[in-house]
Amino acid sequence: MADSLRKHPKQFDDLFCDLVDAGEQSGSLEGMLDRIAMYKEKSEALKSKIKKALNYPIAVLAIAAIVTSILLVKVVPQFAEIFEGFGAQLPAFTLFVMGISDFMVAYWWMFLFGTIGFVIIYKKMLEKSKAMRDRQDKALLKTPVIGEILHKAAIARFTRTLSTTFAAGVPLVDALESAAGASGNALYRDAILKIKADVTTGMQMNMAMQSTGVFPNMVVQMIAIGEESGSIDAMLSKVAEIYEQQVDDAVDGLSSLLEPVIMSILGVLVGGLIVAMYLPIFQMGQVI
User: Fold this and answer.
1) Contact, 232 vs 148, CB < 8 A?
2) Whole-prediction pTM value?
3) Which residue, of 127, 202, 258, 272, has the fewest CB within 10 Å?
4) How many of the other CB atoms lie within 10 Å of CB of 168?
């Protein structure tokens, strides 16, 4: 069955096939498939949480940019025609917004196609350049708030994958290879591959993890306890549960924090345009 699955790499990744292979060799395919199902459910739930944390603010800010652009291109020029007949000096803020509007009216097509072209080219470069993907992964980890969630998610994926493969009877070196690919981040992938190289030479895994300087002390200490007690798979599963819960809590907290922040940004953008357009009218009323 494992050999048949390997013929369809787009649908079944190496980790899936390796676990099925281990189940077939040990005569426990039924239990292994159940373990794979649980692993996939937890992995997809974690991915969903991360996407929720990233997609919501991006979508709202994109809509805000579109609404602001429409106001600058369609609405502000109408006010500009009215202000031309005033014959009075306009406020600096109004002149600033009108200048942006004039630029958008003249070059909106360049802005639109430039943005689309940048997105397409950037995606193509990410697909073709491993170095660029690695730089993006490391940059995302340094992002305020979001970076902390990505750190915890990478540790959760690493420990969950390693626990599943190790408990399935896959040799530790091979399990680390699978966990490196499943970590989802270049920084952790490189660190796990270094752990694999150190473990191959006979070093204990907790010492190898500590030498990378990537994993928190709590994780390293729990792995050390698991190695000493002979229950490393159970300890890895426990670490995964802890960090998965931390990711859940962090995403929920981030969502609560982002809602007022995003509303404030929308208020500043749209409200600023409205104030800029009505400010000359208010000044005329004061003069009258």
Assistant:
1) no
2) 0.70
3) 202
4) 22
